[in-house]
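#dry-run=false #mode=assembly
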Amino acid sequence: MNHVDRLPPMKPHDATATQVRPLNRPRPVHVVADAEGRPIRVRNDREWRAVTSIRESWRIDDEWWRLTISRAYYAVVLDEGRLVTLYRDLVTGEWFLQAH
Amino acid sequence: MESRVRSWKRHRAGKRSRENCMVLCLWLPAFELRLERIRAPELSGSPLALLASRGGERREISQACERAVGVGVRAGMRVSQAVGLCPSLNVIEPDPAFYESNQESLLYELQTWSPVVEPAGRGRFFIGTDGLERLYGPPGDQVAGLLRHLARGFPSQVTADLRVGCAPGKFGAWVAVNRAKPRNPVMVPEERLVPFLADRPVSVLPVNPRMVRRLEQLGVVRLGQLTRLPEPALIAQFGADGRRALAWATGRRIDPVHPRRRVRPVCVSLDFPAPVGQLEMLHAAVDHLLERGLARPARRGRSIRGIRLGATLEDGRSWSVRTILRDPTSTKKTLGFVLRSRIALYPPQRAVESLSLEFFRFGPPSAQTDLFEPRRDAKRKFSGLETAEGTLLPPVREAARTLRLRLGRGVLYRVLELQPVSRIPERRHALLELEAGR
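#status=ok
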């Protein structure tokens, strides 16, 4: 490894970098979906809950020029009466829980 | 008494002029392009050109390799023009932070060899060699030793093309290094300086290019011809440049090396959770960094004269703008305006991953700013946990400090608005640690 390779990209020697922590990050969640890809059961904490109704659904497609973001959101009501927002990552197929 | 003071001043002046008289100039032409080739070896063999940092809509070439120069590509040429002349030309975005860090590494290595080192642009250094004979021997041995010293720390692509010139004064050394070839240094002893300079073209003079052009039009193409002109005529024609040019050409003016004394800068930085491309977001981040930078204890009591804003871009390269203020200030509003103008003129070419702010030159303390500093103002307005100027209230500051001391990490945060209208929920807001020092 030569000297130039070893050089750091540039960090001021006394810089105190502040990490900005994102809020409302998506949390992975287990979901059982029907044939059309809509959620029918959601694992909430330790138990499975049935989805009684889907209040709203929408889709986000963004940043195709960078790392594609493609999500199908569902605002659902669980059998316990809670309203939660889920989304399926259409790139990886994973489900996440996220307030919208 | 007065005559004694005068004689002391003469003695000091004489002494100063003899200090660091012999100068060694080290020059690595096309420094930035060379570094790019080392970083990306796959580019070797293909024609290469570097874009100017200060771009705007119409980007220009700032540096071109020998192969590109061979087909007519020149610095200052438009990119379209350059690509038209050389279709296989690889045009590279500049990475100022990368070049700067390498320049600093070279400077550091040179400073371990001699304490008197003055950087003069990227890839060019003046080194005072007076007094080094006892350490490294005669000038020839000094140069060989210096090259060996650099070869131990830097790749051969860097050291192989180093040019070295040694002469009395910075001007002489610069002229000498211009004649030097790689591995073939040009050494000019004091007694040979004037004849050596006489043969050199007037274009080596560090004066206004219009003066050089005019001299050439008048048939004065060599420094030797310039020395035959009367000084009053030169001053009448070219002013101070004329006087300086004559002093350099006749060897009367010997500029010593001024070693760089670096003031410890005040730096603050901010990492974004996702790359940011919107100017509004960058402006908000700049405001935030200014607040933090101005509140740093190391800055207090000094106004800001030099300020640099740098960023790491999403493709891993860097971007930076710097400015020297005519009137030093410590007002956030003024500094913010200056930085916004710079960003508008030279916007980053890619989304920004992290932003850093550096106060690198300082002015005298500003009495007015201190008088009206918000924390001393009795009528300050409170909004939540902060004053109107973004400074934490003392009880909150104290609580943040106590918690940090007790838990070893910060646990209090403020909500920062990032992209409030983003379609992606996690991009809208973020948490930023409350700083106990503010």
